[in-house]
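FOLDING PROBLEM:
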Amino acid sequence: MRLGYFSMPLHPLGRTWAETLREDREAVILADSLGFHDAFIGEHLTDRHENITNSLLFLATLISDTQQIKLGTGTTNLSQQHPVLVAANSAMFDHLSGGRFILGISPGALTSDAEALGILGEDRNKMFAEAIDVITAIWESEAPYAIDLPDNRFTVTTASTMDADFGVGYLPKPLQQPRPEIVGTVVAPFSKGVIAMGRRDFHPLSANFLLPQWVATHWPNYVQGKQEAGQTADPADWRVARTVFVADDPATAEAYGRANEDSPYRFYYSQMFKKMRKLGRLELFKTRRDQPDDEVTLDGILDKLVITGTPESVTEQILALREEVGDFGELVYAGLDWVDPRLARRSMELMAQKVMPDVNAALG
């Protein structure tokens, strides 16, 4: 089982933007030094808590300061950019990073972003599907392209302006061939989008704020999609994100990981609780789909979704998670605000140097 890193990220108000950006960079640099396989960074335009506006731009600042970790957008919100820009900029990033790029994709869920861009009334899921078709078509075809897919708003061609002698009219190809890995974040129980991922050989990343029982619903759908494409699903391609805090002693683990009022884990899930209630998506935190909303509490969410303890305890909890959801290839560690930088760094060190070796030893 590989170890990955994912950060939305989510910071409390009152911290300067430069400070949180510096901290978010330090976390990825640390992950690289500890041997994490990859790092996914989220983006939002209009969220004061989740304040990385462009994940590709942020990740570009890390290319020279990291050695082996793959750098993934987590996600590029495809309703918010023309697919030609995503294809061209991602291809350049792939070359700049020496092939360490992963394209993480989603429609873009934040409604205030959509309003600011003037697309609040648009079907952003449809825009997402149209955009990824065009991005992959650009990478697969040659100039002058002539990409005009049925019922797709994005027509791409350079036919009238292409000049081979001057070298214009050519969109760049990525370094990785035939294309970089494409990863889709899965945030809903029984997601039908996972079937489409399987058909197209995109890889799923199950969100850290889903209960394990809902995470378990993703794999059968991915298997179905792969079967429809005449292929066999490989558990190595499935990433499962979890919110984890590891400490040297149980008291610190419980306090910082759950109980204290200034716990970044409590802050993170209090924010997610409020957001999902406003969006009408509390079912993510429910043990059954018809559970009344008033039965969902912050403490209950923390108990179900935060894996915390000593290395031995966290190892046991990860193995129990795998028993519940099935085999998967990568545990993606959710990075939060560094309320206590010493404890935050120590947790990542223990996760990489103690927990994951013990997990893999147990798995044989």
